[in-house]
Amino acid sequence: xxxxxxxxxxxxxxxxxxxxxxxxxxxxxxxxxxxxxxxxxxxxxxxxxxxxxxxxxxxxxxxxxxxxxxxxxxxxxxxxxxxxxxxxxxxxxxxxxxxxxxxxxxxxxxxxxxxxxxxxxxxxxxxxxxxxxxxxxxxxxxxxxxxxxxxxxxxxxxxxxxxxxxxxxxxxxxxxxxxxxxxxxxxxxxxxxxxxxxxxxxxxxxxxxxxxxxxxxxxxxxxxxxxxxxxxxxxxxxxxxxxxxxxxxxxxxxxxxxxxxxxxxxxxxxxxxxxxxxxxxxxxxxxxxxxxxxxxxxxxxxxxxxxx
Length: 308
Ligand SMILES: [Mn+2]
Prior knowledge:
Blueprint: H1 3-14, E1 19-22, H2 29-44, E2 50-52, E3 65-69, E4 88-93, E5 102-107, H3 114-125, H4 131-144, H5 155-166, H6 171-179, H7 184-194, E6 198-200, E7 205-210, H8 213-218, H9 230-233, E8 240-246, E9 252-258, H10 264-270, E10 274-275, E11 279-284, H11 288-307
Parallel strand pairs: 1-2, 1-3, 3-4, 4-5, 7-8
Antiparallel strand pairs: 6-7, 8-9, 9-11, 10-11
The structure holds manganese (II) ion.
């Protein structure tokens, strides 16, 4: 982590009275963990943070600092924020594809979760990490590393996790809430989706499809797709897993996972998306089927390149 830059971020955050904290649409464990973790720390310091989940038409007028966490592009905060005159003051993230869309950009790809970047920042600032903060940050770190299984989980990741446990995070309790509390609706969506599995490229790639009517059939919500793709990644011999979600208006949301040999960030980036080497995504506003075929072709090409 660039210490001089981190110090600038600390000074900027410390001087704000009412920071407004944002994260990405369809927030995941790291997005929520980072948002709540930073909010706890700022509250404990006597600042007055606001957490923004439903994106308003304008930045709240009382906000004197605009912070975005765990989000690789300004659009991912919410399309309407791109019209706001106010620039993003501080971006804190770990996505390698983040171009740095704020005034100060602390982007640390060597730490596998934004929650981990925040922990290092708080440590450097000497800001108190309460048990509640430690719990939020541990949940972010655990979920973004697939329970410490993904590539990128290194000694530093585990040291951060250990420090958070020392500060009051309870790994077993957090795991229970993050992984052992699936609603029946979410389970039903998973079941419908897994039945669509199709294996390709000599069983080195596999894809799942979510059709719009799966939501009415299961009663699940859009955030319930989180984690379904991992069910494909676990297949032996598979290199790339993908999940295609067709929207009711013909758009397509794509999630990609690699076991390590294929760089799915390169595939996503070539088609207008982004992410990390082992996990990336793309959104297409229209032409869902045509774009699914483009993604599948790019995956096939990347897999055949492995065999050459
Ligand atoms: Mn993250």
